[in-house]
Structure formats: structure tokens, C-alpha cells
Amino acid sequence: MLHNLALGFSVAGTPFNLLLAFIGVLMGTLIGVLPGIGPMTGVALLIPLTFGMPPTSAIILMAGIYYGAMYGGSTTSILVNTPGESASVVTCLDGYEMAKKGRAGPALAAAAIGSFIAGTFATLALMAFGPVLAKVALHFGPPEFFALMVMGLTVVTSLAGRSMLKALFATLFGLAIAMIGIDLQSAAQRFTFGNPELMDGVEFLVVAIGLFALTEVFINISEMKHAKEVTTEKIQGGLWLTKEDWKRFWPSCTRGTLSGFFVGGIAGAGAAVASFVSYGIEKRMSKHKDELGKGAIEGVTGPESANNAAAGGSLIHLLCLGIPGSGTTAIMLGALIMLGLQPGPLLFTQQPEFVWGLIASMYIGNVMLLVLNLPLVGMWVKLLKVPEYLLTLFIIMFSFLGVYTMNNSIQDLVIMVLFGIIGYGMKRADIPASPVILGMVLGKQMEEKFRQSMVISDGSLSIFFSRPIALALLALAVISITNPYWKHIGAFVKGLFMKPEADAA
Amino acid sequence: MSIRSAVMALTVLAGGITFAAETYPSKPLEIVAPANPGGGFDALARAISRSLDTEKLYPQSNSVINKPGAGGAIGFAYMQMKSKDNYELTVFSPPLIIGSINGTFPSRYTELTPIAKLITDYQVFLVRADSPYKTFKDLMAAVKRNPQAVKFAGGSAAGNMDHLAFCKVAKAAGVDPSKLVYVAFSGGGEAMTTLLGGNVAFVSTGIGEAIPQIQAGTVRALAVTAPERRGGPMASVPTVKEAGINVTYEVWRGVFGTPGMSKEAQEYWMKTLKTMSTTKSWADSVQKMQWVDAYADAAAFAKFLAEENKSYEDLMKNLGLVK
What is the pLDDT of residue A440? Predict the structure, then answer.
């Protein structure tokens, strides 16, 4: 293995490949910061540039963009409540709260360091266990996926604010939005009203930006009217993590990395799902779970580590199975085939200089990202010193630009504004917005996987209970959702036994 | 994105200045790819664009614009909006016909002006390496015995190419296609994982996606839907015809102009694309993308489309996908 790695570094270390890795991570960071332009579009637009490059150089550039975007996506989530890409939506919850409290610096730093550790771990794991993990991944059929999504949905209990009922309402709303579009199994159109742009469903980032960023704008505007004074965010304390922060950083980073790698690398479910699952885990296992949602560092570190580990993990699917685990890796697969390379089980043996060159360049790229991002934290934080009315304009511009560039669609802008208004109403009614996003992200896949399972089993539900992985995941979901009520159930059962005695007496 | 807007602005500007020009190509050309960057349509549109540039076949500039969504319906609507514009071309494949039959497209495919069929591809049916079905005949015998038990998967919604390709073959073999059980996935990769995980009996997919798995020996290709055997890594894979079912299924790709494009412009592009299909840069693209050259001129293309339309209509009626 060391011999292979040395080969890899000799490939990745050429000045040309180093330059490409640098360009890749730099562009990736930018793409991540801008909402709308996701890593998928970024990689796709660069494909023509890679024509004529050796395949190794091409993948170094593309992979750099992919994990660079995972780094950059958190920045706008934390600073202006506008997720840069789908995997950073959860980061808004605590990241923006931290920024509001003047702790944007530590939040950005924690996101960058967490991403670095998770990215490096994913690279190491890809190197050590890639081909083995790829085999495990094949055990994830539709029933296992469905069970995973159900487990993900239990996260809602941790996203609920004061009222569980309101959170469930919001989740159902999200699930309902996820149903818009052409149904995969029957090809029937649902809730499209004959509108061709609705056939693919509503893009999840359009809703997320409406519900988070525009809602924030509306709130700002309505409050500006009441109090004419313009308040600027105060930056308190340092830009760097405190001793206390570090103590809380490590456990959440470890949990985020492992869960993200599982979700992205083994199940192949993508970075957005990974970030949600990680947030749920933090809410249950963190020592500071009560602070989550109010600006806890765990809420940033966990999901940000998870989405980077998932991005690295999904490369396992691409390289070892030849099967893309996400939209971005699907485009990368297309590009590699175009370059005359066949990703798949034989890649490791047939093209060692390609695989190990990529792995080595991922180490290098992760270091570059850390060096690139940490000094920039101070610059990003200065953004918060901008007066609120200017910042509001800035958010509006960012939101419209980002959503428009996604599909060049005016209708997407209308939908975004609509969700901004809905979000404002929800905020006033104290209904949490994040369960809507959760319902949307998981709902579509959950339904698809359920229907696929049903077709495979000829309509028998036993398929979920006869397969060990699916059963285990479903059991975990049940345990985690009933967890808070065990005490009550215990008391209730006790009460049942006590009562007759009381009557007898 | 800003570069593209700048190019578009220049296009508009140039259009305004050259309004008095008399001969046909007096404006920049826009090639509409009705899908996202990175997909098959995008690759084809960009290959055409590159060849027009390198071979200096079009005296003006040309650019590719992506109109993704709804399986091409958004791109189709865009072409409708540009009716009679002689400087818009687009590329389409069988979903154009499928969408115009099942009503997901805003209008019939005949509205577009056919210019040329350029390339083609075929479907392949794969089983897992350890599958009991050794040959396509084995598979078809099992399907005939009990279609319910031999489920197949594909990377697109029901009623799309992956589904219909096998339905067409089954129908030709005397099996009622509405009895077949198709599991739809939202991408070829997911369908492949499902096959490798042993959850379905076989997969219907494009040849390109199948090659890495075939080479690795994780799957076995039972048949291709081509009229004769394909070359390279697919050389050992028999055709459906060899199994005694006289049918082919073609995933063609061709170029269309806007509704109501002028005769002059249509003829210009017929000639230009014909020349292009013989150039070295085009041959390079075809080879790189593992396409099959299948040039047919406008008249032959239109006739071919009418046959395709008939065949799809029958099949989809049979499946209850159209009333």
C-alpha cells in the first residue's frame, strides 16, 4: 500500500497536477459559496476543459471541485442563512445562530477543520477498504434504503421547536411538496397542473433558499419598520475556537465523520441526507443537546464533517463499483468514460496510477482547502459588519442569482418567493422550517424506494422484516423515536399495576 | 454563467446589426441541448458545435445553450417559442416521440423541422454473472413461463426507453408486455446496484453504461437490440435477432430545426450536417463517445420518425400508457 501511495504522490505531485488540484479546490469553494451553482453544474461546465488532458489530471480537477464545494457550502449558511448547496442546509440551523451571537469565526473555523478531518478520513478509508466496502454497498437494495430514510425522518423529533405537532405538520408539508412531479413507477403526473416545469418536481434548494434566506429578509424588513435603528452584528470574542469549543468539537466531528461515511460511502445516499442524519445523532448523543438549534457548535461540526465524509465516500461507489452514488459522481463517470477510462471493479488493478494519483491528490487537496479557508475566515466574518439593510439586499441578490442560474427558470424564482412568504407566515406562527426541508429531501427517495420494494416483493410488506439490514435500521428508528417516551411508558405500565391494588385497598 | 450571458448579449446585438443581410447564414447559431450539461444531449450538441468550428463549416459563430427539464419537454417548449427562427437547432432522441404520444410534451413531434439523424445507440439486457439465465433464450423462456417472476429494472421512469425496449422485444416474442414487471429507478447506476444486489432478474440499459461491468465480469450481457453484433468489448454479445426474435430497438439521436423553419435554412443545414458527418473531427467525437454513426437525411429521417411513432403508439397502447 505504501508503495502504491508513493506512486500516487509521484503522479499527483507534478506541477501540472498540483496546479489543477489548486484550481479545482478554489473553484469548488467558490461554487460552494454561491447558492444555485452546485458541484454538479460546476463539474459539468468544466468537462470541455478536460478534453485532451490525461484522465488522472481530469479527475484531480473534478474531484477538487467536488470536495471544495462541500467546504465552501457552509460559509453562506453560517453568515447569511443562505445555504450554498443542498448539503449545507442543516448548517444554517446552528451556524447562523452562532453568527447572530457574534461567534461566526469559531463556526466557520469549526466547519473548515471538521471538513478537513472528515475529508482526510474518507480518503484514508477509500484507500484501505475501498474494494471491500464496495461489496457491502451492494447489500443496500430498495428496502434497506427505505429503512435508512425512515431512520433519517426520525430526526424530525430533534428539529422540533416547542411543539411536536407543528414539526409534524411541517414534515407532512415537505413530504407533500416532494410528491410533485412525474411518478417513477407509473409515469403519472402528480400536482403538475400540466406545467412542464413542474414535471421534475420542485427543486429542493429553491424551497430551502425561500424558506431560510428570503424569510430572513422579510423578517428583517418587517422589524426594521418597527425599530428604525439599524443594528449591526457585533463580533464578540476571537475568530478561533476556544478551549471549550475544542472540547465539544472532537466528539461531534468523530460522530459526523463516521455517520457521513456510512451514509455516503456504504449506503450511497448522498451528502444532504448524511448531514441530516448527523444532526439527528448530535441531538441525541451530544452532551449539549439542549443547546442545539440555539447556536451550538456541535450543530455545525457534525453535519459539516458528515457531508465531506459522504462526498469522499461516494467516490468509493464510483471508483470501485463503477456506479455513481450521487449526481456529481454520475457526471464524473460520464467524463471519465469520455476520456477513455472505464471505472469499475477492475480500475484498481488496471489503472493503479490513476486511482492512487487521485487518492494522493485528495490528501493534497484537503490540505490546500484548509490553508485556503482558515485565513479567509476573518475576511468572511467582516461581512457581518455590513449594515443590516445592505446585507438584506445582498441576500436578496444572492438568492435570486443563485436560484435563477440553477435552471435558467423564472418559474423557480416565483416558487422561491412564494416559499419566502410561506416561511414568513410559518415563522410568525412558530412552525419550524427545517422539517419541511427534511420531508422534501427524504420524502421523494423514501417513496421511490418503498414503491420499488413493493414491486420487487409483489406487494408484500414482509420484505422490510425479512432482510436483516432493513430490519435493524427500522428497529433503530423505532427506538430513537420512542426514546423520550420510555419514561412515560414505564410510569404508565407501573400505573396499570398499581391501580388494582389501590382499588383493592 | 456570466460568459454565457455575454455571448447571448452579443448574439442579440449581432442579430440587430445584420438585419439587412440577404443570404442565409448571416447570424450566429444557437444549438439547444434539452438537458443538463454533462448528459448525452449536451455531449452531442457540443460535439456538433465543436465540429462546426474546427472544420469552419459555419461562417458565423455558434453556441450551445442548455434547456434542461421534464425529459426534454422544456427544450421542446423553448423551440416552440422560437418558431420560424432559422438560427436555432436542437437535438432529440426517442423520448421526443414517447413524450408526444403520452402528452408530457406540449405538442406533437411533427411540429419540429427534421434535419438529419446523426448517431444511434442500442439497448443491452444484463443479468448478474451468477444468474441461472445463460442465454437470452433461457431468459425469454422464463419470461414466457411467468413474467411476474422475472422482474427487470431500468434507470428511467416507467414508459421510458429502458422499459419500452424490453416491452418491444417481448411483444415481438409473443409475450403480452402489460404482464411484465418493471422496477423504475431514477438513474442507470441505481438500477445496476439493484441487479448486482440480486434484487431483480435483469436490467435494461444503454451499452455505454454496461461496458465497465461486463469487462469486470460482474454481469453477463445476454443480448443487444442492434441489427448486427457490436464491436469492441461487445463483440461476443449476440443480438436479439440471433435468439430468434426478429426485432431491433434503436436509441437514435437527430437534429431538428424550429417549427416553421424556412426551406432555405433547412436545406442549408441538411447539406452542412451531411458534410460534417464525414469530417475527421466528427469521427473523433463519435469514436470518443462510443456512438454509432447513423447519418440519414431529412426525408429518410422523417420517414423513420413516422415508423417509430407507429411502433411506439402500438406498444404504449398495449401497455395502457395512452388512451
Answer: 85
Give the chain A residue whose CA is nearest to the CA of B156: A184
End-to-end CA distance of chain B: 43
A440: in domain: no
Instruction: Decide if B66 and A408 are in contact by the 8 Å CB cutoff.
Output: yes
Which residue of A65, A139, A148, A184 is the best one to mutate when testing the B interface, meaning the one whose CB has the most B CBs within 10 A? A184
Residue window 46-85, chain A: list those with CB within 8 Å of chain B.
Answer: 47-48
Instruction: Decide if A491 is inside a domain.
Output: no
For chain B, 323 residues long, give each residue's pLDDT as a single digit of tens: 455 555 555 554 444 444 444 588 888 999 999 987 767 788 899 899 999 998 889 988 898 888 887 788 888 989 999 999 999 999 999 999 999 998 888 889 999 999 999 999 899 999 999 999 999 999 999 999 999 999 999 988 888 999 999 999 999 999 999 999 999 988 777 888 889 889 999 999 988 778 878 888 889 999 999 999 988 888 999 999 999 999 999 999 999 999 999 999 999 999 999 999 999 999 988 887 778 889 999 999 999 999 999 999 999 998 888 86
In-domain check, residue A467: no
d(CA B208, CA B40): 11
Beta-bridge partner residues of B222: none
- CA-nearest residue to A402 within chain B is B1
One-letter-per-residue 3-state SS of chain B: CHHHHHHHHHHHHHHHHCCCCCCCCCCCEEEEECCCCCCHHHHHHHHHHHHHHHCCCCCCCEEEEECCCHHHHHHHHHHHHCCCCCCEEEEECCHHHHHHHHCCCCCCHHHCEEEEEEEEEEEEEEEECCCCCCCHHHHHHHHHHCHHHCCEEECCCCCCHHHHHHHHHHHHCCCCHHHCCEEECCCHHHHHHHHHCCCCCEEEEEHHHHHHHHHHCCEEEEEECCCCCCCHHHCCCCECHHHCCCCCCEEEEEEEECCCCCHHHHHHHHHHHHHHCCCHHHHHHHHHCCCEEEEEEHHHHHHHHHHHHHHHHHHHHHCCCCC
Q: What is the pTM of this model?
A: 0.79
Band of pLDDT at residue A1, cut at 50, 70 and 90: low
CA distance to partner chain B, nearest, from residue A413 (Å): 16
Is residue A396 assigned to a domain? no
Location of each CATH 3.40.190.150 domain in chain B: 2-120+251-318
Domain B122-243 fold is: D-Maltodextrin-Binding Protein; domain 2 (3.40.190)
Residues of chain B neighbouring A182 (CB-CB closer than 8 A): 70-71, 104, 157
pLDDT attached to residue B216: 82
Number of compact structural domains in chain A: 1
Interface contact B158, partner A, CB < 8 A: yes
Which residues make up the CATH 3.40.190.10 domain(s) of chain B?
122-243
CATH superfamily name and code, B2-120+251-318 = Bordetella uptake gene, domain 1 (3.40.190.150)
